[in-house]
Amino acid sequence: MAIVRKLTREEAKLVTRRRLLEATARLLTKTGYGGLSASAVAREAGVAQPTFYVHFRDKDELVRALAEEKIGEQRARLRDARASVHRMPGIEGVRETFRVGLRAIAENPGLFRLYAQERGQPGSPFGEQARRLEAELRHDLTEDLIGLGLPAATPAERTRVEMVAEAMVVQTEALGIAHLDGRYGDLEAIVDVLAAFAMGVLGHLVVAAGARTA
Amino acid sequence: MAIVRKLTREEAKLVTRRRLLEATARLLTKTGYGGLSASAVAREAGVAQPTFYVHFRDKDELVRALAEEKIGEQRARLRDARASVHRMPGIEGVRETFRVGLRAIAENPGLFRLYAQERGQPGSPFGEQARRLEAELRHDLTEDLIGLGLPAATPAERTRVEMVAEAMVVQTEALGIAHLDGRYGDLEAIVDVLAAFAMGVLGHLVVAAGARTA
What we know:
The structure is a homodimer.
Chain A: H1 9-31, H2 38-45, H3 49-55, H4 59-85, H5 90-107, H6 109-118, H7 125-147, H8 155-180, H9 187-208
């Protein structure tokens, strides 16, 4: 649909900002953070280089804005999902937790490829946001696992629950990214595997602790 | 110990090559692949920039040489370990598999930080080698899991075993890297968690398939 009325100054600014952010997302997946430059982003977005600096001080500020927007959306989505998962009983709640995470990845391939790429990069503002999201997921899952019966009375037990949560988060991410790469086509088959790990480790650790099984 | 005799031309060449490789390893952990340049490597190694090009055509060739050497060493080590693990019975073999992988990480912090950093970078020759090692580990572990009783008669079952293997590899890597970051101090506690996951999922999937438990 063509926009007939001329854009206001504010609308034009918004469009240019959006173009710069989307151009960054495209370039980042090709070059990584280190290879990105303000001039390449301006070229990709089809705007003059001085215009770039009207919107962002430098590439760091640009990538930080992109990361906050895109990863922030996923964080909000996963938080909402967690609240409704909490109302599901036992194994169905466990499966739904993984399903929600996997769907987030499957529906945002560009974003999560970038996430996997930048997560390990020490100087990358996108990587920083990715690590922050990962730490939050780990924290939430730790609480959920304690709720499901994993013992956490001593510091050693608490650390163990954190390790279990961390392992589950990276499993979900890795199999989700492999799905994007076309290696595992069926999301429900991935849910099956993640649930088998989860139920297995819960049974194993809860029983080992002599507590009730979840 | 001081070397009294003057270096031969060949020895001097070897020393310079070694300095360039070690300088690259140091710089890569700071800047990532995208931020690396031949001039920065030469400066860090304390050699003149033209000398760089006596040894390597460009930074790609340099990083590829580094990756082949360092990751190749780990690959050989893990292969050797696998052969001896195969002679251990049941759970002790499973634990030893994880222990060997975790020790490789713990004893080579610089290498595995770089591994975690570059693994996701599409254009990085170091990342390429890292992904190749990961694919090999996944393949070996898939065979081992089938040996432990995971059903793999149909394509869907085979894919499931591959997913289980992939999840185990990334769990081990993630907890090993977290150990380097100082989050989990005790390697044996990590082995406990990985073994609980492994025994849990094996029990779960082998029993579910109606086959004998491993």
